Amino acid sequence: MIWRAIIFWLLGVSLAFADFPRHFKALATIHVQYYGNRNLINDGTRSFYFDAENQLTNVSVVGQWQVSFVYDGLNRRRITQEFTWQSGGWLKTNEIHYLCDGPLVIQERDTNNNPQVTYTRGLDLSLTLQGAGGIGGLLGRTDSNGSTFYHADGNGNITALLDGYQNIVARYRYDAFGKLLGEWGTNADLNHYRFSSMEFFSNPGISGYPRRFYEPNFQRWLNRDPIGETGGINLYGSVGNNPVNFVDPYGLDPWYSWLNPFSYSSGYARSQGVQALNAQLAANDYSGVGDFQQANPTWNGNGNLTAGNMQAVQASANLAADAANGYLNTMQAIVPAGVVSKAEQAAAQAIADANQGGLLSKLLSKCKSNKTPHFHHPWPKYLGGNPEQILEPLPKALHDAYHAGLDQILPRQPGADFYSDLPPDAQAQVLQALNTYTQAFDAQYGTQLYNAMVREGFPY
User: Which domain covers residue 339, as residue numbers?
Assistant: First the structure.
């Protein structure tokens, strides 16, 4: 994903200096003000107020309307109040109390605790109930008039609501960054969950994510990223300016990539089982099944020689089965015809491959090869590491596996200064990718490469 972002950046630079005819349309000037913790407090029309936790508590237009928010100790929005200016004072017109399941709203109540709207949720884009912050997981909305049912596009943006007779009662259209281009239908204004399956507040024109508010006209957040530069050096930027390919479940992670169904082919699920097998071999310094069989000629393939570690068997089987089932569920929803049989075959083959890996893992716990270790630069030099490093002894198979995986996300490029010549935000994303990958590798293979990188001055 980081490599794709780099390509887009390079393409943008090329287009910026290309000799194209240029036609510009002047837009209205907007004067914005920031204060204190660099929260937006005024855009020339609206005034914004934040508490000590940098949570938006009030937004208003003088003499017209006001919306206020109340939070609980888990930073969840629990009360929304709406006011209109009348006879020289604020008149409250509506108050909503939220009932939550974790970070997600499942019911709205009035001030007397009477249920007004109930939301039914299912699997979101992560194929879990809350892994993607509920984006794409809304199923239905029930109020005193009955139930309506959500339809969303591939990024979890709500595009329509249907009633029980399959009549379209609400329809929405957005630009890429979530600006509402049009809405139609008798229930369009009743439903508040719109772009990215998040609650939209009509008067302020902002979307409420669990940790921040998003302004689709500005294409950015109202205040800085709560996790600071860990989320990128642009503290107000949303999804790396790439909303077509990315979503942000909580207003924290600008590079959260949703499940890409096109990567879930019939061969992909099987490959998960094969990868589980190869990972177990590489972790014990075997280059492949042939290498293992040469080192252990008495192995007969039935897995009865040693008891081994059954946790490894189960983990590899689960990994492959999850991949196959994810492919099945996703592709059934998108292109049902002709897919189910392929997915079922892939699932069966993936589990078989994983079980084969499980049998070998039982042997590997007793039959390890003691080959000469390879010496590894903890912080790869081509990604900014100091040429003069304390080398880390590492079996050659693990060294090769580490770089093979790293080359998939951060390929080596011609020119020694390719990555160092990137702009600062791109460099930060590269190092964050290296950080995430190395820690995941350590967790899988029991190595200590991340600690060695930190020892060499790695900044993350």
Answer: 261-364
Number of domains in the chain: 3
**112 burial via Cβ count (<10 Å: 0-12, 13-18, 19+):** exposed
DSSP alpha helices (H): ranges in 335-423?
A: 340-364, 396-409
Residue 143 exposed, middle or buried by CB count within 10 Å (0-12, 13-18, 19+): middle
Q: Say yes or no: 348 and 384 in one domain.
A: no
Residue 337 and residue 401 in one domain: no
Neighbours of 424 (CB within 10 A): 8
Residue 311 near residue 366, CB atoms below 8 Å:
no
Buried b (16+ CB within 10 A) or exposed e, 152-175: beebbbbebbbbeeeebbbbbebe
Residue 449: exposure state from Cβ atoms within 10 A (0-12, 13-18, ≥19):
buried
Residues 52 and 156 in one domain: yes
Query: Which regions of 130-267 does DSSP assign to beta strands (E)?
Result: 138-143, 146-152, 158-162, 168-174, 180-184, 199-201, 206-208, 213-215, 220-221
Q: Determine contact, residues 320/355, Cβ cutoff 8 Å.
A: no
Query: pTM of the prediction?
Result: 0.55
65-98 pLDDT tens trace: 999 999 998 889 999 999 999 999 999 999 999 9
Radius of gyration of the chain (CA): 27
Check whether residue 137 and residue 174 sit in a common domain: yes
Domain-ending residue, one of 323, 339, 364: 364
The pLDDT tens digits of the residues spanning 17-70 come to 344 344 445 556 788 899 878 899 999 999 999 999 999 999 999 999 999 999
The amino acid at 369:
S
Residue 280 lies in a domain: yes
Closest CA relative to residue 49, chosen from 59, 61, 62, 38: 59
Please give the full DSSP string across 93-107, using - where no structure is assigned.
Answer: EEEEEEEEETTEEEE
Q: How far apart are CA 348 and CA 214, in angstroms?
A: 43
